[in-house]
Task: inverse folding
């Protein structure tokens, strides 16, 4: 235990030892990041840690000295090593099981956002530029720039009243009765979900998620330190027996799902499934958060949990990022009247106000009436693309177990023996962002799946690069 | 224990009993909202609860029956009363001590946001419309509407790169060296603080706050279930002996403060105080979050914690809501390079992206160069208003123990014997929003103080209504 920092830095260390040293360092860093070792806490003794890690004492001494050199821990001669007093901030990656970067939800989001303009993104979750109503949106924005107070001031606590009125009408068309006073706006669907999770759960609570599900649900649950329990999800929706079993066994605070055009499978629930899910949720005292971000892709509105439930135990979230623009984001929460004031209190505390400018711009856009035409054209274009992509994927050797009725996603299976993470890594090296199935799977049981966005597959290079990546 | 719901609803109850029943109901509701009684939990027995509340058993039976009638609890004959299975969402008001609405930070925010166009808002925390550079901002927005991709797409994970470059330069002018890669953008200063608190603290951790301090810090700490410890704050800054004592006694995760033009006192720290605070923070292993939202009011930049510290243990937050517009909000976080990736991971998880449109608009506005002229004019106008308001308040009988060098706030004291909450209630009834001192005070030790915004005091009616409210 006498090796000093100076010695550790100057003495050469053989290569084989080095990797063992790094393993020990990583183990200590994990405990510090995960807060198992807080600021000022004493590290395990060199002897004990060497035994528990199955390495030599000198390896542990080397690792501790290097961590001390970095300032992560401090040595107090005679009494051992201690975590440095500067508290370490949260590391999302250190909450829960450590994930391979390739299946880390946050990393995939980062890849999609950072991909250069020349890269291909068949795995990404949004539409390409030329699929969006850019001119109409710019016109709405110019109007707001000329005429609206939204440029200058905070909006009201619940969010832009004219937009809430429009949204209440749109919900009614989908069978969800919500008074404008039951709507609360947030800066995006993701931020709306974040607010709702704070509203419903505390760290350590359990949440039910679909397996597979939209990977941001997992990232949010991780950030909130929730326990995640997966419910197998297929073309018919969640496995209801497994859903009930999970309700009984884990007593989740809430279940979060997409009832229409689920991400990644594209499945839409039937009325009977919606009805049964609600009955089970009621029997077992669970709330449901329904993320309805894909609703506007549907030609005919399908059944919705919030609609059947009458906003009793379901909180509904919608937005426009998928079909209008990701630059001007709005999230709309519909919930029980008697919960509105409390949710707004929480919103005021953590954000003070949502973005007035964006809300007014989306309102103006919707008021102009061109959105319906855009959606009609978009649905047709997606249907055409879907047909083409299904054919091309089949030629490449992938199978599509279920073809959704609408939307942009296809949940596809690679030929036997191929791992989606391997294929995605090879594709990424050639500038193609794929979405490997296990990013969506809590059980990591979707190793042979890939999610495709049919709108991002116009270039024939998507399929040639895919075939190349599959060849290895 | 046999009184049924039906009986409880039909039997008339004497008035005196009724208020006792309501007290018991409120006590149970508090425990349910605060999660001391979770969904499905058994309520205390009627006998035990009657004893502990000092009421008769029939009062408790009445209260339980009424709660059952509302669906908050359920009766299971033979085994007692249980909290209903539908989980209750968070009630911010139920975290920590219950606050009078008049000194509840969230409620004050709500009042200021909801006040009609005709009401006077000398207590509110922002500038009136005609003090802001509306035409210049609209011009910037029109430019973005014509030319920028920001209307349509997500921004990069760290936030708008051109804006981060501008902001890094502005920070340098204030003595804070930060590379653009050390900046992370959020949708507002409040949301930036919310993100940082999640980054640094877990529920149950302790945070140090100034007493008095900006009330949103308290609302945020409450939402995060942090323990709050106050440090007395005066014209020289925090009481350093009390600061050290709190560091030793409470081992806070972090201290949050404004080092320039503190809200509500208007105090700016001297170099020696900044130096000593940093030394104490270092000695005791605490981080500092510096909210610098008022920096642009200063004619000459004062010393900053982040500047002296070199972004080692200080995380710095700035924005433009106070001096540019509250409709187009941006929050900018400057922090240690080695923490950036982790913070961005968290940001991606909980918000996916900040508002591209707003960031691009603020960038364009700053690039046009008129902001400096606006700030010059604003500072002069504020100095004039400050002089006038100090005189008028003195005429009304209030004292101003300290007149800040810049900014919009005055921290003033009512004459002996007057309570600021009483005065504020009477003023609100006549359409005047005041800011009573205890909204800013964790110890509730500022009962005779009021915060004035000198920019919101142009109407002589502010002072006549104030005098009337002081008369009772």
Result:
């Amino acid at each position: 235990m006498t090796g000093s920092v100076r010695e550790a830095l100057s003495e050469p260390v053989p290569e084989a030892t080095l990797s063992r040293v790094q393993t020990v360092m990583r183990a200590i860093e994990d405990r510090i990041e995960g807060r198992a070792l807080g600021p000022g806490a004493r590290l395990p003794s060199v002897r004990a840690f060497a035994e528990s890690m199955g390495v030599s004492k000198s390896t542990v001494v080397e690792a501790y000295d290097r961590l001390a050199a970095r300032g992560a821990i401090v040595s107090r001669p005679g009494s051992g090593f201690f975590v440095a007093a500067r508290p370490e901030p949260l590391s999302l990656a250190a909450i829960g099981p450590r994930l391979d970067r390739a299946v880390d939800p946050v990393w995939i989001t980062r890849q999609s956002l950072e991909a250069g303009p020349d890269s291909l993104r068949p795995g990404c979750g949004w539409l390409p530029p030329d699929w969006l109503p850019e001119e109409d949106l710019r016109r709405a924005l110019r109007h707001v720039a000329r005429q609206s107070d939204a440029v200058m001031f905070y909006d009201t606590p619940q969010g832009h009243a004219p937009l809430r009125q429009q949204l209440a009408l749109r919900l009614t068309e989908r069978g969800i009765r919500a008074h404008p006073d039951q709507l609360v706006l947030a800066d995006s669907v993701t931020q709306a979900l974040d607010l709702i999770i704070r509203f419903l759960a505390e760290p350590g609570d359990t949440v039910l998620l679909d397996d597979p599900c939209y990977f941001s649900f997992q990232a949010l649950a991780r950030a909130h330190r929730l326990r995640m329990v997966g419910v197998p999800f297929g073309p018919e929706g969640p496995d209801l027996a497994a859903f009930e079993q999970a309700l009984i066994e884990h007593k989740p605070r809430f279940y979060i799902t997409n009832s229409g055009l689920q991400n990644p499978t594209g499945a839409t629930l039937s009325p009977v499934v919606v009805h049964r899910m609600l009955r089970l949720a009621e029997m077992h005292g669970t709330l449901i958060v329904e993320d309805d971000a894909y609703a506007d892709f549907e030609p005919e509105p399908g059944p919705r949990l919030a609609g059947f439930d009458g906003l009793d135990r379901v909180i509904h979230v919608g937005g426009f990022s998928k079909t209008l623009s990701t630059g001007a984001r709005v999230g709309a929460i519909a919930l029980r009247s008697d919960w509105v004031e409390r949710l707004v209190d929480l919103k005021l505390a953590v954000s003070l106000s949502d973005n007035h400018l964006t809300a007014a711009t989306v309102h103006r856009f919707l008021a102009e009436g061109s959105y319906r035409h855009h959606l009609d054209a978009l649905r047709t274009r997606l249907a055409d693309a879907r047909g083409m992509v299904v054919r091309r994927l089949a030629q490449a050797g992938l199978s599509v177990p279920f073809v959704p009725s609408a939307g942009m996603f296809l949940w596809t299976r690679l030929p036997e023996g191929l791992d989606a993470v391997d294929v995605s890594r090879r594709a990424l090296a050639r500038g193609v962002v794929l979405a490997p199935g296990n990013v969506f799977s809590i059980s990591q049981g979707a190793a042979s799946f890939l999610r495709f966005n049919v709108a991002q597959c116009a270039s024939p290079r998507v399929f040639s690069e895919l075939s190349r990546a599959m060849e290895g």
Observations:
- Chain A touches chain B through 83 residues (CB under 8 Å).
- Residues 424 and 434 of chain A are 5 Å apart (CA to CA).
- The radius of gyration of chain A is 25 Å.
- Confidence is low (pLDDT under 50) at residues 1-13 of chain A.
